[in-house]
Automatic annotation (TrEMBL):
Species of the source: Cercophora newfieldiana
Keyword Transferase: yes
A GO CC term attached to the entry: nucleus
Protein name (record): DNA (cytosine-5-)-methyltransferase
Keywords, in A-Z order: DNA-binding, Methyltransferase, Nucleus, S-adenosyl-L-methionine, Transferase
Region annotated Disordered, chain positions: 1-56, 993-1016, 1119-1226
Family, as annotated: Belongs to the class I-like SAM-binding methyltransferase superfamily. C5-methyltransferase family.
Classification via CDD domains: BAH_DCM_I
Amino acid sequence: MVVTLAGEPSHPSPKMSVPQSPEGLDGLGTPDTLPSQEESEPAEYSPAPFEPQRSRHVTVDIPSNLLTTPKSRHHGFTPPLPPVAERVALEALAVPNCPSSEWVEFELDQFSFYISGDRYLDEMRSLQHMSTRPGHSIFYCDGILSNGGVKQYVQGMEIVELPIGNYGRKYASVADQIWVRSRRNHKREVYYLLKNPAAEYARFFTPFQWVADLAKHVVDFTSYMIDSDRALDVRIGSFKDDFVSWLLKTHGVAHRLPVVERWLAQHPSHDFRTAVATNIEFIWKEMHGVLGSRKLASLPLIREVMSCEQYKMFPTPKPLGGMIEASTLPGQHPKKGDDPQYPTIVTSYVKECFGNMVIGEMLRVPGEDASQTCGDTTHIRNDAPQDASRNPWVLSKKFLSRDAMGRIKVGDTISTPRDERGKTNTKWQPMVSRNSVDDGRWFGLVQKVHVTKNGHRSFDVTWLYRPADTPCGIMKYPWPDELFLSDHCTCEEGARIRIKEDEILAVHPINWFGNPNDSEDRFFIRQMYMVEERRWVSLQEKHLTCCHSREIVRLKPGDTILATLQPASDVFSEPYEVVKVFRQGDKLLVRLRVLLRREKMEPLASNIPRNELVYTDNLIVAKKSGMQVLGKCHVRFFRSDEPILSPYDRGGTGNLFFIRRRLDDRGECVPLGDFPTSLRQGFDPQRQVPKLKGLDLYCGAGNFGRGLEDAGVVEMRWANDIWDKAIHTYMANSLHGEAHPFLGSVDDLLREAIEGNYSESVPRPGDVDFISAGSPCPGFSLLTQDKTTLKQIKNQSLVASFAAFVDFYRPKYGVLENVTGIVPAPKNQDENVLSQLFCALVGMGYQSQVILGDAWSHGAPQTRTRVFLYFAAPGLRLPDAPLASHSHHPDGKQRAVGSLCNAEPFVRRLFDPTAFKYVTAAEGTADLPPIHDSKPDCCVPFPDHRLAFGMTTRRQWELAAIPVHPFGMNFAKAWNEGQGVMSQGDRELFPPAPSARTKANSQGYSRQHPNKPFPTMTTRCQPTDARGGSAVHWYETRPFSIMEARRAQGFPDDEVLVGGTRDQWKLVGNSVARPVALAIGLKFREAWLGSLSDDTKEPRLGKPGTPREVMSVVRRFKQEGEDTTTASESPYPSEPGEFENGLESTPATVVSSGSEASTPRGVKRRLSEDLDREENMIRRPFKEPTSRSRSRSASTAKMSQHAIDQSPTPKTTQQPGPTVVFIDLT
C-alpha cells in the first residue's frame, strides 16, 4: 500500500461529500423508546396448540454471522496483530517529511464500526447513520491500518467523518471510494480508505454500499436538475419513473451500464420513492456536502419528506367563544392533565342535534345563520306545535267505532296499542326519542283485509317504525312527526299476528314522500327502513307493497357468481359462470361453467395469485334448490404477457378474479386465446368514468381515502389532517397533484368554509360529492382507560364535526370509520354518539347504514374490526354492504355491536362460506427476507423492513429468552409462575413482580403465531406492553418491522411514509386497513355506476332501480310449502326431458343436495334451511322468527278465517310444488 498525495488518482475528487453536522438532525426521531401503554384496540389472541411437523430429514439454516458486537468486544478474542493505540499506529505508518496540509491515505481492512453506551453496549451500526441520528455522531472502529507492507491493528478509534468519492455523472458507482476520518485527524488531511469489512460487519457494510450508491445517484440527479434550471421539479414523485430513466440514459455507455444494472437489480422495481424517503437523512447529508446549502434552499424534496415544511400549518384563529375548560362542562370535574381544548365547530342544525349530550358543551356555531350558506339545508323547527290536538304524537287511546273500522281499506295507515312487556312475550321495550312523547302505539300500513265467516275483520300490515325503533334509539331525532316505512310485514306470520279490528286506535293521514316543511299536523314518510339490515333507503312506489310481493330480479346468463353446491358441508364458495337457467317440469335448474383455481391446477408453480382462475368448458347442472348463492363475483380476462391491473391484483379483495389461461383438451393450462364472449366481464379499470370529488377528513397516511379511490370512482380533491407527517405522507403519494391539502384542525377548515373564506384547500358548497373520515378513536377505544377527560370528550365531539361537514356540503355520498367502541354499552345509551349521528344524517334525508368491517374478511392479514357508517343522498342508490371474500380466522368469534329496543344488535358478524381462506401473518409477509435482529437497519429490496422500536441490548436479551416453539409463546407462558420452560437466569432479565408486564395474564413479550393474522396494529410498537404486547416475530429476535405492519394494514409496497420510524409506525397504525377500504369503495362504484360489470353502456350515476345484491333467497309464497308460480308462468325457459335424459350438448355433471324441509310457520324470508347459523344483520333482508312478531292471545289465534284479499294485486293459481328459488342479484 502506498501513501497518496493530493492530486493523485485515488484522491476523493472529482467530487466528495464533505461531512457536516447540519442543523435539525438532532430533532429527527430515534428508535429508542421506553415501553408505555398503547392507545388502540387490543387484539383477541388465543394461540392454537403447537403440532410438530414430522419429517425424516431435519435441516437447520444457520446464518453466516449474526453478531451484534465486534469480535474484539468478546472474551477470548485473539487479535490478528498485537493491538496498538491509533497514535502509535499512525507513527508507525507515517511517511517521513509528509506535510500536514497534504492529503494522506491509509488503508483500513477487516474493519467494524460500532457505538457504545448504557443502552447500546458496543453494538455495530451501519455507516449511513453516522451524524444522521441522535447519539450517532461518534462511531468506534476496530481494524487493520496499513501502508505498503506495514500493518497495525487498532481498536476503539473514534470516527467522526465519512467522506465518499466518485460523485459526478461520469462515474457509475462510488465503488471503493469510501473513507473515514478519525477525531485524532480532524485538523489534518489523514483519511482511512475502507477495504474489506470484518466477517461480522459484512451484513452492515454490504447494504450500506448500496445506499451510498443511491445517495450518489440522487445527488447527481439533483445536480443535473439544478443545472437545467429545474430544481423545483426535484420532488419525491420524481423518483417513481423519471429518476431511473435519467440514470439509464446517463450511464448507458457500455462500461458503466452493467454497473448500474447490477445496482438496479437489487431493488425490486424502478420506483425509488420509498428508498429515497427511508434514507433521506443520509442523502441530505451528502447533498449538503457536495452541492452546498445554497443550491438546496429551493429543493422541494427535502421539505416534502424530511423537514415536512412543504405544506404550512394553517394558523389557528382565536377560539370561538374562548377555550373550553373542564369546569364548564356539566357534571365534569377538572382532572390532572385536563388541558383546555379548542371548541368543535359545527352548524346550527348539528348543534341542536348533539347539544343535549356531554359533547354538546364542546360545540360552537360561527354565527346564527352560518349553516344557511349551503342553501338547501333544512333545520330543526324550533316552533314545533305543542297543542295536543295538532301534534300527531299526542293522540287519544280510544278504539275506533265499528263503522270506522268497516271503512278501513288497503293503503290506510292505522295504529294499535304497543305490546307491553310482562303482559306478552314481546322482546320490545318502550323507547322514545328525547324530543318526542310516548303514545304507546305501533303504526302499520294496511296490505290486506281479512274477514271471517262471522264478519270479524283483521288486517295484514307493513309496520311503520319510529326513530326510537331503529339505531337512532333514544337520541334526539329532529323531526318528531317522521315515521319510516319498514320491510317488516305480518303477511307471512299467520293469523295470530294480524291486527284485529278491536285493536285499532285510529286511522292516520300520512304525507307520503313528504318532508319536514310540508307535513304540519300529520306524519310524513320519506324513507324505508330495512329491518334486518338496519338500513334506510329513499322511499319508492314499489315499497308500498309488502316485500314478498315485489318483483325480484333474477340471475342472467353470463353472470359470475360465488356458490356452494353442497351448502351443508362446503366451507368455501367457488366461482361459476351462469350459462343458463331453465325449468324441467317442476324443477328449476342452473347450468354452470366451472372456473377452476389455477393454484390448484398447478400446485408446484410459485407466486400464483389466489384469485387467478382457469377458463374451462366443463359444465355442470345444479338444482337451484340445492345450491347456495353467496353473491356475485367479477371476473376479467387478461393476456398472459400483460400486467394485472388494480384492483384485480389485490388477492381477491372485493371478490374480484382474473383469467389468463384456459384448460385445453389434454387438461393442461394454456394461455387464453380469444376472450370468451359469453361471460360478462368485470369492469375495466382503465375505462374513464365520471368520478365523485372527495373530501378526505382526518386523512392520515391516506390508506382509507386511497382504498376508496382504488375502486375507480372516487377522486380525493381535498385532504385534511392536523399532523404534518400525515399530510406530507398523503401528498407524497398524490402523484398527479389532484389533492389540495389543508394542514390544520377540522374546526379551522369548517370555520373557514362557513365564513366563506374559500380557497384551493377550502372547497365551496356544491363542489364536494363525497366525504370520508376516520375520526380520532381514542375517545371510544377500549385502551383509553378514562374517556371522560376533556381531551377525550373533544375527540368524541369530532363525530359531530363530521355531521356538520355533511350538513354544510351536502355531498352525494360519504362514510365514517371508527372503533367498535363508538357504540356504547346499553347502560350508556343516553350518550350514544353513533345513534345521534344516525339521527342527524337521517334527519337530513340521507339514506344510511352501519356495517362491521373485519380486516381479515377482506384479505388483510390482521385481526382488526371497525365500524363503518355510510350514507347516500336522497334519490341516489345506497351502496350495499360488501360481501366478505376471506374466511374467519380460528379465533374469530361471534361479534355484535349496539343494542336496539328489542335487544337485538345494530349489526353482527356473519359466518358464511367465502371464496378464500384468511391470510396469515406468515403468508402476508412470505416474500420479505429475514432481517433477524434488524441491527443493520437496512433492507435494500424493502426499505421499510426495519424496526420502529428501540431494541436496546437488554430488550434483545429479553426477546431472545422467549421460545419460538410452540407458536404464540410469551413471557407469562414461558415462565408460568416458575413452572414453565424459562430458567431462573432468564427470568432475571425481565421486570420484577409486581410489574404488569410479567403478570400471569400479561400479553407482554408475545410472539405472533405465524398461522394466524397479525393482531390489531396500534399507533406504537410496544412488544413489552401488558395489554398490546403481541408484537414479536414468530422466529426472529425482534418486534414487527414497519414493513410487516404495512402488510397487515394493506399498504401497497410502493407508497411512501415520511418522518422518523416511530412516526411511520404511527401513520400505519392510525390507518384503515386498505382491503376494507377497497371493498367499500367497490360498493360505492356499484352504487354510482349501476354495476361492477363491463357491460354498463351509460353509467347510472347513483340512480336507484337495481335491487340490492343479496344472497340466494329460498322462500315459499305459501306457508305450507306451496309454489304459486306454475311452470307456464315461470320466467325461465322450459327444456322438457333435458335433465332426465341427459341431453346436454357438452359434458355436464348433475349436482343435488337432496330434498328440502318445509318452512315452519312464522318464519319470514330465510336462507336455505341447510344453512344453520347466525343470520346476517348487514346484508340479509331476513327476519328472525321472534324478533319482530307481535304477541297475540291463544283464543284470538283459534278463530276460523276466510280471507278476502282486497289488494289490487291479482291472485295466482295455487298448486302444490317444490320451493322456487329466486336469485336476487343485480
